[in-house]
């Protein structure tokens, strides 16, 4: 029926108008009248931001369109100042444009900032918030969940790991933390192994460990390991504090504990140093939360500097960039455990990506000390069920912010999705 209709249209139009102009009009007419697969025609009309402080600094961005649909994105860590980058730079890439051309807008925004820091940090964090808002918008406009737009699900629910953010042991507080994490159903727990208040440190700046300091750290990790049943995995985070000699000694001392991984044993920017640590130990090494874009992961993979990659989809460039990083890692047989410290909105956005990644293990959850905020942040309530998040089937990210609850954590003096006055 459709081909008959097109032939009739062509004949009728040809006899009536003739010439190239008529054909162009005809082509447009066919696009708008005869195809049942029309994509919505949207135009970006405004970009607004809000900033909160929960686990660090988070930036929320909303991209509005001429048809009343808006997309919501969240970015983190290098978020202070990112709102200004959005409003003073990226805004002009977005206004008036079709928001469904996500790759085009992302690449324009990235290349616009090549001389303004678009390789990492605040600029990429700003770009990330925008990218995620565009995916949320695309999902809402096309009435599909984001995972479907990224290739479809390979799993329905996302295993979370609980970063307790603590290093205390053998006291009432540490027992309560572990009991609560287990009660919430987590099968992986992470603890810190860098303690700025370790009484044996050489001084406040030097992180080279002496024997007493090292013994205390290893004893703490041993204690936590002993409290957990075998089916619960334990990981430790060094936050990139240590030098190579300390990182190697710690990693070797951890070997009998069979940790899931030792994260950022040295700072992330020196890939050769990370590789040296990895080659020295049987303890798996993880890194990635302080690397940006695909470019930040190619050398880690090529040089075999890490066993597990931990990109943060709320700062590394966004959801599609995260998917691309995961695909690169898959080609090197390297699993992904994304870093994640954001609200349920950003976490669910990450879940959409994790649902599409074959080489995914588990996603971080870090609101252990902010449970009340977590549970009231979105209108849908607590999205964690027994240590997992079920990926939303609703269009876009699939969650709506409870503004009254979220605003309790607003950074003073910053706008709350108000029109830009700059
Ligand atoms: Mg970390």
* Rg, nearest Å: 24 Å
Number of DSSP strand runs: 12
Strand content is 5-15%
Structural class: alpha/beta
Ligand kinds: magnesium ion
Q: How far from one another are the termini?
A: 54 Å
Order of helices and strands: HHEEEHHHHEHEHEHEHEHEHHEHEEH
Per the CATH scheme, the topology name of the largest domain is TIM Barrel
* CATH architecture label name of the largest domain: Alpha-Beta Barrel
Number of helices: 15
Largest sheet composition:
9 strands, mixed
Q: Could you give me the name of the CATH homologous superfamily of the largest domain?
A: Enolase-like C-terminal domain
Q: Enumerate the spans where pLDDT stays under 50 for 5 or more consecutive residues.
A: 1-10, 12-17
Q: What percentage of residues falls in helices of 4 or more residues?
A: 40-55%
CATH class of the largest domain, named Alpha Beta
Number of domains: 2
**What coarse outline follows from CA principal-axis ratios?**
globular
